[in-house]
Amino acid sequence: MKAHVLTILASASMSLMVSAEQKRPNILFLFSDDHALKSISAYGGPLKDIAPTPYIDSIAEEGAIFENSFCGNSICGPSRASILTGKHSHKNGFMRNTGKGFDQSQWTVAKALKGAGYTTAVIGKWHLHTNPVAFDYWEVLPGQGSYYNPDFIQMDGSKKKFQGYVTDITTDKAIKWLDGRDKDKPFF
Question: Smaller CB count within 10 Å for the chain: N or C?
């Protein structure tokens, strides 16, 4: 699924640069760890009746379903690096969650969209051992992050602790950013 999403985002960003006068779509990319295809009921897997996922399904109804997609890397940070760059891990250099940080000098979808006039943000799990580049706004969890009362790395490099469950906090932060962003620009 991840490679196809990136292909679509990369194609969209290139076409956006060519036709800047046309209305550009907003792009909301939700990335969630550890959801096997059969665990999302929108795909009709064996768990759809036992453990339905109505909220994910409603997003699928309004977005896209990838029925022929493959995972280039199922590990947290490497999968994010693959999505950002469109390259497999051995090409983008981020092959495991340990070791050196993500090489931010390479092309990323965020750089392409920012260059095409999008306002960009990343909020939540980053897991790339570097601070995000080409994002107008970011607040990311250090490493894997904590499920309860997590720290978030701020844009000035400081860490700030928040009370509550990480998914709720991340969602609230994303909504706050969406509400306060520059409404004259499309967003990613």
Answer: N
Does residue 95 sit in helix, strand or coil?
coil
Helix (H) or strand (E) holding 141: strand 137-141
pTM of the model: 0.80
* 2 close to 79: Cβ distance less than 8 angstroms: yes
Residue 123: its H or E element = strand 121-125
Q: What share of the chain is helix, strand, coil (3-state, %, to 5)?
A: 35, 10, 55
- 173 contacts 139 by C-beta, under 8 angstroms: yes
Structure tokens at 79: 């999968």
CA distances from 131 to 25, 142, 154, 187 (A): 26, 10, 9, 20
d(CA 118, CA 104): 19
Structure tokens at 29: 């990319």
CA distance 124 to 132: 11
50-90: per-residue pLDDT in tens? 999 999 899 889 887 877 877 778 888 999 999 999 999 99
Cα–Cα distance measured from residue 13 to residue 15, given in angstroms and rounded to the nearest whole number: 6
Active centre residues (catalytic):
76, 127
> For the segment 86-144, what is each residue's pLDDT rounded down to a tens digit?
999 999 999 998 878 999 999 999 999 999 999 999 999 999 999 999 999 999 999 98
